[in-house]
Amino acid sequence: MLSDYNETIYDKYIEFIYNNTALRNNLISIDENKNNTQSTRDNFINCDISLRFMEPNPFEIAIFIWVIGFIWQEFKQAYGSGIRVYLTAHSKFYILNLIYMYTKIKLLLGNYVDCAMNLLYILYFICLYSSMILTRTSMNTFRSTDYWNQTGRYDNMTDNEKAEYVSKTYHILYWLNADRYYWTSGDLQNLAEAFFAMGNVASICRICFLLPIIGFVGPLQVKY
Hints:
This protein is an all-alpha fold. The protein has ten helices and no strands. Helix 7 (110-143) packs across helix 9.
């Protein structure tokens, strides 16, 4: 919460934004227009803000290191065997190539699946870290003395200055607010989680060709 994160910023938020009825209504109006809906619950401007994450947690750092290692492994394999061999290899595991030779079961081109998995994870981290950067940038603006000085004279601004300031403030509050109710469907955090989910599916696809071969895991394959 903003009140727990920084009491000084929270006090200024309450004084200059939340208690300013004209500014608050303009911000709520922008939110309703962008979402093309009428808010049926708390307004976009609440008395406190649940903050987004501004830095990765240990779990995300561990996954990032693992993905970088995986990508480096794929580059080494492509460089060592040649790009043509890399793209046409059915599997990088000798035992699975033997299964393919003797059973004639068509295996997935494992390297294509690996590339798709790595690409999805890369997109996940790009969206995730971009969201964190935007959140941190918004918080840095909230820390700025110039911003709050400008906020204090909102009622005396011209219409053009008010429109520019409201748009800027809405952008800041949007990226600080962790309440998904107010997020757009194309929010970077939503996209990051979608790419992460698809990357997990691709990682499972790497062993799908084992399902009809090994009796213990065969029942996991569902056919429609």
